[in-house]
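Researcher: Last one for today. Full complex below.
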Amino acid sequence: MRDVLFWLSGAALAFFITAGAFLLLANLATVPSEKSLAPDPASGGSGAAVELELDAERLAALRPLPDQSLDLRVKNEGATRLLDVNVVLTVSSENTALPNTRFYRRTVEKVAAGGATGVHFEFDLSDAEQPAAGRPASEPARKILEIRATTPEGVSTVRTVILPP
Amino acid sequence: MPSSARPARLFAVLTFVVLTIAPARCFHTDEEGSIAPLAPAAGRVDPGLGPGTRALSSGPGYKGSPSWSPGGGRIAFTVDGYVMDKPTESGGLRRWTTRDFVARDTEWTSDDTLTMLGAAPASPSREETRRSLYRAHTGGDSLKLEKIARGVLAMSPGPDGDGLIFAFDRGAYESGLALTRGSAEVYKIYPKPIEGRVASLSLSPSGDEAVVAVRPEGDPETSELRTFDLRTGEGKEVTRLDGKREILGTPQWTKQGLFFVAGKQSTPVDEDGSEPLYDLYRVPEGGDAPEPAPGVGEDFVAASISVSPDGSRLAVIGRLNPKSPTNLYVLEPATKSLEAVTANEDMEIKTGPDDLMWSPDGKSVAIVARGTPSTEPEVRADPVDRLLRDFYNLYEIPVSGDTPQ
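Model: Here's the assembly. Have a good evening.
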């Protein structure tokens, strides 16, 4: 009986020591390198639990034409579910004299904690208006996509994509 | 060992093993092929131009013609043909012109007066509209533009940012000169015309004389350099460039004489396929024969120049040789020393004659540059109006080790 109690005590002690060690390690653990590229709060990323994920191949496939489409993912890196995340895609030109900025909006009803939801946009990347003759501008002017995801609580994140001409 | 104790020991050992071997946790990276954005830049940046560089603008738009206010608190510039200005520290951007005006150049003529040179947008079927000079007083609530003159060929700020001198078309292939002081409503027109068409001009450090680059009538293959004494209203020829050579940009007047950039007239490519190369020349005080500017080296390719407020130094955008990257240099004519003040890695620095300007205190130079555009989509973690390298933007470059505050 004494032996059993001795071994049980030892097992319990080992358990608590090990659990304590793992808890300590969990507090000291650093974020994986890919997450360290998240924008710092001061710049507009706002330490957000919401993040945007874009696909390189999809972006490379875009052309300065109507009827373009883009799939992206809204990620929830927080511990609580996100509801009604507003995602706005703004299409503009590097030539700020061109007034043809276009806006597209989608609402993501919910994103589970630690999960991600896909969002699909269809939009026009063509030039609605030609640049005025004689006005200095970068030639050729590149197209710019600005994608902003915002929660009703005001937490937001933004990605800007500069497309080659 | 008693047989009854074995199961107990075995149980304890198994308990120990289970509790001390934590479940393995797999850390794996996502493999979606997504593009991780670059970390945003903020504050004093080093966009590849060297330490101490400070961005004066941000966001998209083809920017140019930086102009410091005389007090140094604001900077004006053109963006896609519009005139904008903003505080040199933090603060909002103001736009001064509308779609029916294309600005080519803008200058402060006092701390609350901005002058702009431009014209209506040219239509494909007509020649370029004649350029006019407009003035805006920034101190009031209304951003109203006032037309000063028509047919303006070139303009240059006065000493210490006080006033402006400009050349205008008098017809019959003659040019006239006019001078304003501060925010004065009237300006003085010099009665004696300059024969030929003024391409550019600037004032001497004292403000008493002007140097002009002129295209003589009926001779498109020649450029002339002339001075004009504003006290007597008389001008004289300094030098004449024949053989299809032209003066590029605006000649500058330093304490050690006149400097100008010249070379073969602009063609898309030279006969051998290379781009035209321009040299920096100097006309010594009291002399009339230009010589290659001492201190820059014979292989130096010059683009644009600007004299410091005190007339003792010359900012030069150029290359040490045709294969070098473009950088900003400061030439001290008195000592014939040339110092590189940028350490350009992969930036495209604009080389237009109005795309660099000294700060009023002579401690820095504003230039316009952008990073080399990529052939692939680029993703950034900032709003578009805060991006720097991706578009042409204004940068303040400290000179001689002074870091702007």
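The helical segments of chain B are 5-20. Chain B touches chain A through 60 residues (CB under 8 Å).
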